[in-house]
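Hi V.,

You were right to ask for the full record rather than a summary. Here it is.
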Amino acid sequence: MNAAPCDSAGGMYQLSADHRPNASCNGSSPPGNWSSGDDALLLPTFTTAAKVRVIVTFILCGASAFCNLAVLWAAHGDGKRKSHVRVLILNLTVADLLVTFVVMPVDAVWNLTVQWLAGDFACRLLMFLKLQAMYSCAFVTVVISLDRQAAILNPLAINKARRRNRAMLTVAWAMSVILSVPQLFLFHSVTIVRPEAFTQCTTRGSFAAHWHETAYNMFTFCCLFLLPLIIMITCYNRIFCEISKRLKMDNLPPNEVHLRCSKNNIPRARMRTLKMSIVIVLSFIICWTPYYLLGLWYWFFPDDLRVKVSHSLSHILFIFGLLNACLDPLIYGLFTIYFRKGIRRRYCSAAAAASDGDNNTVVSGSFTCGGNSSAQKERRALSQETLVW
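Predicted structure:
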């Protein structure tokens, strides 16, 4: 599962399955040059499926970079102290940008060049960064779930939220780095000499036995996906139980939860943030679950998988997982007034500055992008959504 999971130019599969040396090879040969005694060994080729994967990955990389940078751009324009929820969203944006600028380009270029051309140091470093980016996305999503659980189950402790979230984010980022460190020692640049010289970034020779490799892959799978999934499901199950209990106590029908917030002590802004976080978690689960399940199938039944699963499907599922980094900023824009207002405010400020420079005039204090009444409405809307961002 090394880096999402174990996919480095299709590295979740062995050479015979995906036509490229496995990113987590099952052999126990020492690192360095090796020659295969198997006449059936096939060197990788730039297949049509790989070409489509490269094109789509670059498109997703551009879209994700634009959307996530827009989130940071909108947030940067506000000098006010950021709410604790907004800090969580910004951390998830940074994690998505790591996926955008590390996982996506490395995957696309590696498929494009077929073999590894960047050397041993880059092999170790980039495999470390790839897994660290994946860990950070998963762990920050868990922190968001824990924050929403605390907000609903213990709303009176909201004053402690900022300190609590800072501690959880510190642990999340630290763990994402610590758990990725083995990549620096397991991956290395390896060259085969038959049927021709071919270099690949792989873990070949790093494991004394096949079960050691399987154990490492399963450990990574549990930390990267299974454990975060269990925590997130537990959090939202407790949230739904708490909301149901309050609705029963207040004798409110479910469809009125957003209309009569004063009775069940769940403000509209908090419910909006809860809905946003649920969609973020669902996006993570829906995008990555198929690919991780395919990885589990390969680790335990590799021969069966080679027969029943086409190479194109593995490409499609990995691309589908990368889509998660593009969806997060769209979810922010859908559920948060602040993000939309922030984009509009930054755009209007830039337009006003450009106009001032072109005309060499001083912009009067009454100038706004939408007039004074619009600015007042914006301020009122933002004040109502302080719990959202």
